[in-house]
Design brief:
- By secondary structure, the protein is an all-alpha fold.
- The protein has a domain of about 40 residues.
- It has 3 helices and no strands.
- Helix 2 runs antiparallel to helix 3.
- The protein is flat, with a radius of gyration of 14 Å.
- The mean pLDDT is about 90.
Length: about 60
């Protein structure tokens, strides 16, 4: 029987929790600049972190 990998909690969900729409947009822009793969081409995990941040932002925006 194959092992089921438990889903890891997204560390960026907490960053967007409790913010209004403007606060979320401001936080998203800041994180996008920091984590964008084009700016961090020497870091192999940048793309994964950027995707996690984007998913957390989309879940946060869906609340409105």
């Amino acid at each position: 029987m194959p092992r089921v990998r438990e889903a890891q909690p997204n560390p960026y969900d907490a960053r967007f929790a409790g913010l209004d729409r403007q606060g979320m947009a401001r936080s998203y822009r800041q994180l996008a600049r920091e984590l964008h793969p084009d700016r961090n081409f020497d870091d192999s995990q940048t793309t994964e972190r950027f995707q996690l941040m984007l998913e957390a932002y989309q879940r946060g925006v869906a609340r409105f």
